[in-house]
Amino acid sequence: MKHQDKVVFVTGAGQGMGRAIVQRFAAEGAKVAAIDINKDAAADTAASCEGEVIAIACDIANSESVKGVMQQVKDVFGRLDVVINNAGTGSVDAFLDTPDENWDRVIGVNLKGTFLCCREGARLMLENGGGAIINVSSSAAVSGEGPSHYVASKAGVMGLTRSIARELAPNGIRVNTLVPGATNTPMMQGIPEEWMQQMISAIPLGRMAEPDDVAKVASFLASDDAGFITGQNIAVNGGMVFI
Question: 234 pairs with which residues across the strands?
């Protein structure tokens, strides 16, 4: 029970990696806020867990929505110890054909949403002397493979981590980035089959990650075992990309 009584905030909790992360932290004793734009999906995740898990709807790209949900977490649990920014979106757009609205949506969720949850989460963590933030990027940020808005947003997440890790370290807040590769999630189903097979063929371990592969590393980074790790990119990609 390595996270006994810690309060953990997980975005994109309705499916895939987010659901696996919520389930693992709940199993390890944490009190978890499962956050998703789809309240029903978040509720399904909460129902799949043993322990204290609440489901809250939030549009993480909206500042007021994030502030409101952070206040709810404080009202229910009284504190915040861990933020895991897992929520993400994408679309299949060739660079020259990318509509403005698709660019804005992907950057808004993946990068601005991560920024907002980091900022508001850190403000709460300051009240109890520190905590851990884990941002989820992508191997695409390193390889450059994928739609331009998605790659740019995930590269931005890695830069955001480095910046705020330096600023928040004196306050006892550690910030790291998980960098998954191809992972067996519903989001992966929207990728053309040709792209998917190319990704798998580039993985030395010969398979996609399962969501719990990522959840296990998130648990480690949030634990005291990782107490001297901050500002780092931790690749969970089967050797697909070396960082």
Answer: 178
